[in-house]
Write a structure and sequence with these properties.
The chain is built from eight helices and no strands. The chain has about 150 residues and is mainly alpha-helical. The radius of gyration is 16 Å and the shape is globular.
Amino acid sequence: EVYELARARVMLALGETDAARSLLLEIQARINSAEVPYPEGWKANAQYYPVLLPGLLGDLAGVRDAIADLEANQRPDAWAQAAYFIEIPRALNRSGEIDEALDYVDRIVKQFGPHSYFRISIDPAFDDARNHPRYLKLKALAETWVSQQAHTG
């Protein structure tokens, strides 16, 4: 499924929405029929997280269910959060919840620093958020941080 999910992400990035959706629905059928749909769950080294597929499908209810599962069963693990906190805003943003997605990006920046913005700055999943005032504020914060680093180093 890892390869097929990567293919679907590329299709979405290239604007091949119908082909991506068809592939994603095939993946969803296989995952749903599995005895353990997400065997790696939210582990830091998981190949994909339970929020990815519903996010790619724009299934907001599925995204929120995955987030609720994470929050109900989460163990404190900052390293894991670095990995899956980026997947959550991707999924929320693809599901039309830009403000909620940016709430998670804010959490990432608060926990890991302003440089965390650069990870989303090149991510096609955030293309439709680029003109959002909160996104622009994060961008300015990161640019200020870069400027400060240049003057201290």
